[in-house]
Amino acid sequence: DIQMTQSPSTLSASVGDRVTITCRASQSISNWLAWYQQKPGKAPKLLIYKASTLESGVPSRFSGSGSGTEFTLTISSLQPDDFATYYCQQYNSFYSFGQGTKLEIK
Amino acid sequence: EVQLVESGGGLVQPGGSLRLSCAASGFTFSSYWMNWVRQVPGKGLEWVANIKEDGSEKYYVDSVKGRFTISRDNAKNSLYLQMSSLRAEDTAVYYCARWGAGVADYWGQGTLVTVSS
Questions:
Q1: Burial A86-105 (b: 16+ CB within 10 A, else e)
Q2: In percent, how much of chain B has pLDDT > 70?
C-alpha cells in the first residue's frame, strides 16, 4: 500500500500570504496525484489533478508541482475563502489520501 | 448540473447490516467509474470501494473485503453499498463520488453511518 504523508498538519497564515503544503508518497507515484479542499460539514472539492493540472473553475492562485514522491500545493495569495483543510490523494496504485492539512487564520 | 445524493445512513448495532444508495443525475452515469469514500468525523478520507462503468469490475479496501459489496443499476442511475458485519470502526460519513481519470471530480453530500450498541 502507498502511504501519503502531508506536512504540516496545521498551518496558520494571514490573508495575502503565500503558503505551501507538502505531500510525500512512500513510493514513486509518477504524477498521479490530486489535491482536494474540504470545508467543515462539506464534501471535498477537487482542486488539482495529475500533480499540476488545475480543475476547471479553480482560481489560478492555486498551483501544484512535483513528481515521483514529493509534491507541493501552493496558494499564491491567501483569500478568506481558502481557509479549509487540504488533502492529497495518490492514484498510481488504487487510492490513498494524506491525513490532511488544516489551514487556519493567524 | 451533476448531482449525487446519498441515502440510507443511520444507527446500526455492531454485526448489523445497512445499504447505502446514491442517486446520480446530470451526467451519463453509465460512462463513469463510481466510488465510495468514507470519513470518520473529524478525521481524514479513506477510499472504500469502486465499480467499473458496466459493473464488471469491483475493488475494495482491505478492511471491508468480504463485508461490503458495491453495486450499481445503470437503468436507475444509482450506486449502492451493501454493508454487513458492521464494526464500530466503520462509523463514518460515507460519500458517493464520481471518478474521472482516477480522481473524484464530483461528490455527494455524504450520509452518516454510526455503528454502536
A1: bbbbbbbeebbbbbbbebee
A2: 100
